[in-house]
Each structure stands twice: as C-alpha cells, then as structure tokens.
Amino acid sequence: MNKLANSPTTSNSIRVHRLVSIYALVLLWVLGIGARLVYLQVGQVDKYRTLANEQKSGYIEVSSRRGEIRDRHLEDLAISIRADSLYAEPPRIKKILQTADLLAPILEAEGGAIHKKLLSARDFVYLGRRLNPDQAQAVRQLNLPGLGLQKESKRIYPGGQLACHVVGFVGVDDEGLSGLEYLYDGLLKGTKTKVPVSLNARRETFARLSDIRLSDGHMLVLNLDRSIQFAAEQVLRDTVEKCQALNGSAIVMDPNNGEILAMASCPVYDPNAFRKSEERARRNCGILEIYEPGSTFKIITLSAVLNEGLAEPEEEIDCRVGTLRLAGKVYREAHNSYGTLTFNQVIAKSSNVGTIKLGLRLGNDRFYSYIQRFGFGAKTGIELPGEQSGLLRPPSEWSKISIGALSIGQEIGVTPIQMLRAVAAIGNGGYLVEPRLVRQILTGSGENHYRPELKRVRILNESTAARMKEALAMVVNVGTGRSASLDGYSSAGKTGTAQKYINGRYSHDKFVASYVGFAPLLQPRLAAIVVINEPKGQYYGGQVAAPAFGRIMERALMYLNIPQDRPLPSDEKGPANKADRPANETARPGMDLVQAEEPSWSEEGEVPDNLEATVLSLIGDASGSSEVPNLVTVSTDLLQLPDFTGWNLRDVAGEGARLGLRMRISGAGTAVAQRPPAGSRVARQAVCEVYFSTDTRRANGLADTHLAGSGKDAKKRKPREKIS
Questions:
Q1: How far apart are CA 501 and CA 508, in angstroms?
Q2: Burial class (CB in 10 A: 0-12, 13-18, 19+), 396
Q3: Rounded to an integer, what distance in angstroms lies between the CA atom of residue 207 and that of residue 56?
Q4: Among 289, 290, 325, 448, which is disulfide-ready with 413 (CB 3.0 to 4.6 Å)?
C-alpha cells in the first residue's frame, strides 16, 4: 500500500487536483470580481457617477447684487459694485506670524487681530471684506499660501452725505442697518443663489462650471430730487453753523400728494464710512426730534375755530392783556401792547392772548378732536424706521390751563414731518395727506413691483383753508415772517419760537426756532419746514428759520420752473437777506392786505412763566360768555381765601388753580394786596385780584390805588399812577 501511495502516478494525480482546485478558485474569484464590476459599472453607474461628481464639484452660496436706490429722475443715491474680500484657510498657513505682519499694513489693521484669526480652528475665515482695488492688488502680489480673494457686493453712495438720513447704510454683510436700506432690506438684497464650482483634491475652488446670471434685488425709486435735496442740506448746514445750533432739519414736500422732495438733517455723516460718525449725526431729526411747536401750532388752533364757525376773519378780538410785568420782568407778545386785533391780525402778529381767547371757544374735547384730526399724536406713515408719534395727552389729563397752553403750541410734542403735514392741509384746500418717500419699486428685471397710492382725507372745509391762506399770507407780508418772503413768488407761513422744557421747567436760554409754510399762495406747489434746535444769539423763528425757508423755497421753485405769480419790476433789487429789508420798502403786489410795519420778533411767543396766570385770567373772562358753554363748572361750596401777602406770582397762580379761583394779576415782584381780602369766604370760580410790587415803600399806596380803581366807579376816579 505504501508503495502504491508513493508511486509517481498518485503524486501526479494529487498535483492535478490541486491545480484544478486552484484554477477553480481563481476562476470563481475572477467571475465574482467581474460580476461585481458589471454590477457597479452597469447597475450602479448613476449612483457612482453622482458620488464622483460630488467629490470633484461643490456649491457656494452667492448673494445677488443689491438693488439700487435712485431719486425721482433715476439719479443714483445708492449702488452696488463687485469688490474682492480676503479670506484665509488657517490649516494651510505655515508661517502664521509672518503672514499676519505682511497683511497688517495692507488691511490697515493690527497684526495681533489678524494673527488671532489665523490661529482659528476653522477651515475658513474672512480677514478683510470688500477691499479697495489697491488693497486687493497688494494681496495678490504677496502670493501667500492659504489666502484667497472672493468677489462680493460692495455698497457705494455716490453722493456721500447727500440724503444720508433717508437712504441709510448697510453693514459688513450687506444688510441694511438704517433708513430705507433697513426698512426695505428684504427687497433690496434679493435672494441668495447656489452656484456650482469645481474642486481639486484639497477641496479648493479652482473653476466655475457655469456662469449663472444672478437675479438682482429690487430697485427703489424715491420722490426725492437730488438738486432740491442738495439745496436744502446746504442752506440748513449754513444756518446751523451760523447759529451754532445743536441740530436742525428741513423738509420740502408737495402739499397736494405728500411727495417728499427733500428731507435734510444736520449734522450729517458719510454712509460710505458710517463707523467714523457720531451717533447724533446719524439721527434723522425730521422724524425723530420731538419739540414743542410754539406759535406755528396757532395755525391748528385758529383753523379749528374758523372751521367750527366760532370766528370770522374780520372779527375784532380784544387783546389788551398784551403786556404783563411779572416776577420783575416784562413779557411782551408785540412791539407795542395790543388793543384790538382782527382775526387775521392775531395770526400775523402772533398774538398769544388773542389765540388763547379764540382757542377757549372750542372747549377741551372739540379742540382735542381737531388736534387728532390734523394728525398729531400719531405717526404720519412715512416710509422710514423709527418715526416718533409725538406727545399728546387726552383731555382727561389736562389741567385748567392746558387748553390755553395748547392753543399757542405748548404742552404738546410734535415732529417736523407732523407739523409740515398739518400745514400742508391749509395749502391743498383742507386735505391731510400721507407723506411718501417711495415713488416706485421695480424688480431686478425692471418690472413694476409696487407704486403707492395717494392717501388723503378731508379735515377742513375748503372755505376755511382759503381764509387761513389769506391770514398766513399776512404773516409773510406784514407779520413775523417777512424774512421768509420770496422774490417773484407769493407765499404763506408761520414763525415759531419755543422754549425747551428741561428738568421740569422751561429754559430761558435754550429755544427751538421754526418756520413752516407753502408757495405759491393760491396754488401751492411746495410746502416746507425748517426747525433749528438751540440756536445761539438770535433765536426767534423769524430771525433764524424763516430766512432759511426763503432760500430753500426760492431755489426749489426756480429749479422746478414754477411760474412766478408776483414778478419783480426790472429795476427793483431787493437785499439778499430779506430780514434786512427796511420797513418802508415798496410793497409788491399782494402785500396790500394791511399797512406794512417793521416786525417785532417778540410777537412770536410769550415766556411760559406768566402763562398760567394769563390763561387763568382769560378763562375768567371767557367763563361768563355764551361763546364758551359749559367750559367752567361753578361749585356752590364756599372756601376761605388764603393770605397771599409775600407770595411770588407762580405760587399765587398755582394756589389759585388748586382752589379753582379765577386769578387776576397786576404788577410784579411779591404780592402786597388782594381783593377780596384774606379770610373771605368765596365760591369756587370767584374772581380774586392780587397786586404785586417790587417797591415795598410804595406798595401799600399803589395797591390801594389799583384795587380802588378796579371798582364799578373807576371811571370817575383819577387815573392811577403808571408803574414802570
């Protein structure tokens, strides 16, 4: 058996079986590999083709070009260009410190800040966004590993500071941060698009597979006019600098449809470098600054009185309370003390006493209704973020003197755009219009996306608006607004001077000067307002704001080719500064409503220190008139009069208001006598006369004379000694 097993035939047979087994196994392996290859190459071809493409290609997310902002004539206010942004891939950078030192002077940044970014564990970091061409070229010349440049959209404001408070600015990521850029950010920036790119083994982008045209953001077309905007900004800047004011605003609007042709604030900033500006320079004073309007608000009061039929333009108003000497200081509302003024003269001379008397005829609720009707206490709806609604308290929170204070523009806070909108209602025949900055919104392909509709509501009768136009024309022709008169154009308007309310009291050295008006008179094409905050030196609205209004309006009307309705004779040459025109200058057509006279700036306002006493006195006069039904409620409860001797005016007026008395004040200094005497029991709303004097040696005699002269037989007595 052993011999057979070891025979050559047996050995060969074993070898053959082994080879056959090996060949069979190899064949099976080859067949398996082949089958697998057939399966992968044929059955899974789509899957692996997709995987291969994903490995050698990718996508980057690219933002579309931000939409442009243009003025009404399609002049550029904000555009976008393509700019290089520098990025780094920190893992690929070997010489981090050297790279940071080389980049620091090019990027105008600290080397330490760049070094910190290069130490980041992230695969991608930005080192500089939207470089200028010189910076980008310098980076290319360095040719450093791990750095790259990527195209991004960069916002440019060709006009620099022009309309900066309206247009606003964008941040580093091209997102709106202020103004229209912020409010319409979603439309302006368009949509982000994924663009396919080719990648190498290191996942680096080296070629774009397709050149996809991106869809641009929407375009804003504004109602602003670059030329009128420039004029408004220039005049406002000159005025603010000349007066050394805190800030100022100027707005020009079409009173018929609410289109804003210019909205200027001062100080200004450059939106191309907004980070270098102060926060106060970025404030749009036209919609953010709340101030007491002062005498410009008399337009609202007197319009309401006319509209309710409570007065006529020819009616004579007794304004003999025109001069008061209180607390040792003389307060005047006119160059000379007034006697009787017509309704129109009350406006022209800006009589506080006359305005308060007329305002009392309305009563609290009716007056409040008109204030709201003119749009105060609510936002105007202008397309700007952050607009303020102003300050307006309901009648339930008014004091006894609030109706008088409100009549002359105190105890209320307004914004310049609110005041302009209200006065525009006089110019357009009685309609309150919604101010509009945006004229049209176009898609990236140029199709119309949005066009706002005219929104207006009638708040005054047409006849009321016409009569108020005539009255406001007198302000310009013969009143406090003469320095706002226009060469070749008729106009109407109102001056205002208001003391600022600071730390619970009215300041004696911080004022807000303003002027608001429209032109031409009969068919107004433009309305404008100028507000100057805290001017130094001259501070009356007729001295500060009115001339600025005139300069802006003249340039705008001439630029728009508005026909002159009051042409000058060829040989007439008026002074450049209308405030310098002599009182006896030749009156132009349309100035013959009343005899011209030199304006008195003190006509514009009454120092609020004596407001309480004045209003209480006027309420006392009005309470017995049928023109003010149910204005004062009289109580039958008796009260004991205090001894006012030695009290100052404010304390007397305050105590009188608390007790419900009708105070009548005479003299200045401290109280020396009263009538009825101290201790008398009187009903609420009784009249109490208090006499003040600064001369204690003559006080008793003067008081006796004064109080005696106020009786029924006063006309029979000798005239009282005049107190100076």
A1: 10
A2: exposed
A3: 11
A4: 290
Regarding whether 248 and 207 lie in a shared domain, the answer is no
- Which alpha helices (DSSP H) does 244-380 contain, by range? 285-288, 298-307, 343-348, 352-360, 364-373
From the list 625, 617, 628, the residue with the least C-alpha distance to 685 is 617
Q: Scan for tokens 């302006």, then name that residue.
A: 188
Q: Which two tokens stand for residue 423?
A: 């006065």
CA angle 285, 288, 290 (to 5 degrees): 95
Phi-psi category of residue 249: left, alpha or beta, with phi > 0 → left and psi -120 to 50 → alpha? beta
**Domain extent for 34:** 2-43
Dist CA 481 CA 684 (whole Å)? 42
444 vs 416, which has greater pLDDT? 416
Is there a single domain that holds both residue 234 and residue 336? yes
Token digits for 247?
């800030």
* pLDDT, tens digit, 9 for 90 and up, residues 342-367: 898 889 888 888 888 899 999 999 99
DSSP-derived 3-state class of residue 143? coil
CB 162 within 8 A of CB 77: yes
Residues sharing a CB contact under 8 Å with residue 412, sequence separation 6 or more, in sequence order:
292, 293, 297, 371, 376, 390, 391, 392, 406
DSSP 708-724: HTTSTTGGGSPPPPPP-
Question: For 443, which DSSP code?
Answer: -
411: in domain: yes
Phi, psi for residue 208 in degrees, rounded to 5:
-95, 130
Query: Which helix (DSSP H) or strand (DSSP E) does residue 511 occupy?
Result: strand 505-519
DSSP 648: B
Q: Please check whether residue 352 is in contact with residue 605, taking contact to mean a CB–CB distance below 8 angstroms.
A: yes
Q: 274 and 207 share a domain? A: no
> Which of 381, 385, 518 has its CA nearest to residue 456?
381
Number of domains forming the structure of the chain: 4
The rounded distance, in Å, linking the Cα atoms of 7 and 13 is 10
Please report, as a single letter, which amino acid is at residue 457.
V
Q: Do 464 and 302 contact (CB within 8 A), yes or no?
A: no
- The secondary element (H helix, E strand) that includes residue 425 is helix 416-427
Distance of alpha carbon 311 from alpha carbon 342, whole angstroms: 10
The amino acid present at 78, given as its one-letter code, is A
Confidence (pLDDT) at 206: 52
Specify if 107 maps to a domain: yes
Answer whether the bond into residue 535 is a cis peptide, omega within 30°. no
Cβ proximity of 65 and 216 under 8 Å? yes
Structure confidence at residue 219 (pLDDT): 93
Q: Look at 455-464, 506-515, 540-549, 563-572 and tell me which has the smallest mean pLDDT.
A: 563-572
Share of the chain above pLDDT 70, in %: 77
Pair 344, 280 in one domain: yes
Half-sphere exposure of 29 (CA within 13 A, CB side): 6
722 is a domain residue: no
Which candidate, 606, 550, 543, 613, places its Cα nearest to that of 576? 550
In this structure, what are the phi and psi dihedrals at residue 645, rounded to the nearest 5 degrees?
Answer: -55, 130
Q: Are 408 and 232 in contact (CB under 8 A)?
A: no
Q: Which domain CATH number covers 693?
A: 3.30.10.20
What tokens appear for 77 in the block?
Answer: 């206010």
DSSP-derived secondary structure for 367-383: HHHHHHHTTTTS----S
The CB density around residue 218, as the number of other CB atoms within 10 Å, is 20
Question: Helix 462-478 and helix 416-427: axis angle, to 10°?
Answer: 110
Q: For the domain that residue 203 is a member of, what is the CATH number?
A: 3.90.1310.10
Residues 143 and 257 in one domain: no
Angstrom distance (rounded) from CA 476 to CA 474 = 5
